[in-house]
Each structure stands twice: as structure tokens, then as C-alpha cells.
Here is the input.
Amino acid sequence: MNENFKHIEDKLTHAGEHLALSISEKDAGRERVAAFLEANPSRVASPHAKLLLAGFRPVFALFLILTVGVGAASASEDALPGSILYPIKVRVIEPTRVAFAQTPEDRADVEMDHANRRLEEFARLSVQEGSDETLTATLAVALKEHVDSANEAIDEVAASGDETGAFDAAADLHSILEAHTEIFDRLEEIDRNGEQEDSTFGRALDSALSDTESRRASFEKELNDVPEIVELETALYEQESDVDELVEALQKEIKEELTSLDGEDEGIVSSELAKVAALLLEADAAKTEGRFSAALLLLSDANENLNKLKILLEADAHLGIDIIETDTEGEKE
Here is the structure.
């Protein structure tokens, strides 16, 4: 059997050495190949294409930033959907930020910030131009993508064994979505046509909030089972730092920027800060008693309340509508 194959191989080798196409035959073959490629322009993707694009994307994004100009890139940060600079914001600036996020924690923070941007853009569009279902539907899709990406990154944090980091990130995302749900409800109240109640964006926001609440509860349950005291103490220290930074940022904004607050709003802010102070006292007591998981949860609640209050205050000041009052009426009822 092997000798027969050897005999066939020798014949094929001999034929290859003595058979050749003529020049005219080669030209005709090239023409047929060219005609086929022109009629069938689809390309077969290289299995390495995604890897190459992943490495090239941040470089290309930086190239685009330099091409359009740093000024245009900076100006695009405040652009709304429909404006000429908005594509630079969402297709150049933001992908660059994601590409340079080195850890899952960083990527989760970036995606949460982008989700917050989409929520702010919706609110600004609603106030300035009224509800445009086409634009808001686009924002709804983008919001879901950012929230999904943030959750994927948070899952990576949890998979690495950092349960406290995953819980903190989930709590941050929850506070953002919860604050903007209140803003959305307020916008819905003042919308004369009442179209926002069943809008695509409203459904996307409700779905994201519901999913985040479930995930936060799941991570909280896991947090209670964390045995490493050192890890919990480290997380407590980080949460305390976050709370201090948020309190300082709020005080600065209230003093320097949020001058539109009336007396009633100031009373609400003081009341919310008093609640936070009470949570901090409870957390400190739990920490002293060695109940580190309980202390961490209390600090997380304080952090969420502060972050939510910050978002609501900024919306109250910059949208030109009374956001804080809505919360007060709810409490009075």
C-alpha cells in the first residue's frame, strides 16, 4: 500500500515539474479571479482580527482626538444627542476611557459614569426640547449597554474574590439609577402630554433599577459570609474615605454652586445629611463592637444616600425644575 502511494506521489511531482500555464492562460485566470472578487466583495474575517482591533482601538481613538482637536473633544463633553459634536463624545472620547480602564473596578466606574451621562442627557433633552421618542429610544439602548457592561465588570470583581468591592460597585450603580428614577418621575409629572410614562427610556430605566436591586441584594448576602477580618477592615476604611469625600463635595457644591436652593430645599438637605450622620454613628458603634459586616453595610447605605442626594441636588439646580420638593411631598404623604 505504501509503495503504491509513493508511486502516485512520484508521478504528481514529475507532472508538477513539467506542466505549466501559458502567459495567456495566467492572464485569463487573473481576470476571472478579479471579476469574481468585484462581484463578491464580502470578506472572510481573520480569527485574529478582534485581538488586533482591541489593541488598535485606543490608539485610533487618540488619533481621532488629535485629528478633531482637543478643543472639539472637550466641547463634546457637554453635547446632547442630535448635536454635531455628540458622535465625538460617544464614539471617540468614551470608548477611549473604556479602553484605558486597566482593572474591572476601573471599567465598572467608567461604565457607571457613562450610564449616568445618558440619564443626564435624557433629563436635559426632556426639559429643553421635550420628549423625542427617537432620541430617547437611542439613549435607552445606550443606557442598557452601559449598565450591562458595568454589571459584567462587577461580576469580574466578585469572581476575583473581592466580594466587598463588588458590593460597593453594585451599591454605587443602584444609587445612580434610583436617583434618576426620581428625576424621571418628576419629569413625568410635569410632562403635559404624559408620554414619558410608557416610553422606551422609562422601561429601560425601570428594568435596570430592578436588576441592580436584585444584584445588590445578592452581593449583600455574600458579604455577610466574608470571613476575612482584614478584608472587611480595609473595605471599611475605603468606605469611610468615600463618605468623607462625598460630604465634602456636597458641602462645596451647596456653598458655591447650588445657590438656587430655597429655604424648604435647604431644610430637606439638612434632614438628609442628619440621616447620613445617624448611619455613620451606627456604623462606628458596629465597628467598635467588631461587627464589621454590619458596619460596612451601614456605611454603604450612607454612601448611597449621599450619592443620590448629590445627583438630585445637581438636577434641581441645573434642570430648572424642582426635584427636591417631590421627595418632600412623598415624605409628607
